[in-house]
Structures are given as structure tokens and as C-alpha cells.
Amino acid sequence: FCNIDKNRILFETMEWVAMFDAYPVTPGHVLLIPKEHYETFFDIPDRLKESLNFRLNDVKKLLDDKFHPTGYNIGVNCGQSAGQTVMHCHIHVIPRYDGDCENPRGGVRGVIPGKQNY
User: Would you say the pTM of this structure is higher than 0.85?
Assistant: First the structure.
């Protein structure tokens, strides 16, 4: 994330950058990225985690106003076995829309095929 396309930036603060995902799952898919390098969410210091909720709410407000989603998934991949491919922590904020998939029941449980529906 060192060379971010400025056209994808939604907003930035002293500590965070919110940018539209280059390969969005749904319209409005945003990545919230700490400016300092931390490999996973668990490496982020507490002082930065404390500001995360504020930034998540900022993203939600902007996406609500622009895209009018009916729900959200918030996710973080920590480590290669969890699907992390960019080794700089980033939080996915994925707007969800009625009818965007056949059966959304189970939400994030869908990261393991066959475990979403229970």
C-alpha cells in the first residue's frame, strides 16, 4: 500500500487511509489501512485500535450516503492461512445489498466453503 492511487482514496487521517478496493466484492468496498506498517490486525498497537471504531463509523457514514447499502461485512485476514495476500494490515468494509447473493445467511462463516449455512 505504499503507492496508493490517489483517485481511490475516500479519506485519510494522520493514522489511517480509507480507499476503495481495487477488486471490489460489492460497490463501495473499502479498505481501511493504518499508515504505519503492521503485518496483521493483532500487531496494531492499542492506541491505534482505539481510533479504529471512529474510522469505521466514518467509512460507514460515507458509504451510507453514497451507496445506500442495507448491511455490511467487516473483515480482516490475518496470516496466509486466513487468506492474507498483502502483508500490511487492512480492514475490509464491504457494503451489502438485498439480493447481492442468493443466501447471505452465515455471513463471514462463508470463508470456509460448506460452513456458511448451519
Answer: yes
